Amino acid sequence: MITAIRHVGLVVSDLPAALHFWCDILGFSVVKQVDEFGPHLDAILGLKDVRLTTAKLAAPDGNVIELLQYHTHPDNTSWQGQPYSTGFTHIAMAVKDLDLAYSTLSAAGVTFNAPPQLTPDGYAKVTYCKGPEGVLLELVEVLNA
């Protein structure tokens, strides 16, 4: 039935700020950005008179994150879940040098639960940080592939 995962969608309240974080800080690139509206979108979303801007961002490996800013149906609340909350909790991303990523992101004001931690088996270093809208990002550096 399913042949692939196309992208993961993330609703944001401030698209320019989110683009700065995802592109300028994390290194994603904008593949496509478009203003969307119309009866087809209303039907898909189950809303009326929806207007939004979407931006599809590609990671260096080609995986895609879609940022969505709703202009007509703003929520303006950030995700308040915890790592153990039911449902989607985080996006995991691979990095080459987690210590460097940690210091770069910390200097940019990104908050972390803890500095990078070595897994007990020595396979990887891992940490969690918060991105825009409170989304949890898991950063992983594989040490022994």
From TrEMBL:
An example Gene Ontology biological process: L-methylmalonyl-CoA metabolic process
One Pfam assignment: Glyoxalase
SUPFAM superfamilies, alphabetized: Glyoxalase/Bleomycin resistance protein/Dihydroxybiphenyl dioxygenase
A GO MF label: metal ion binding
Keywords tagged on the record: Metal-binding
VOC domain location: 4-142
Top-rank taxon, per record: Bacteria
The protein's name: Glyoxalase
Annotated organism of origin: Chlorobium phaeovibrioides
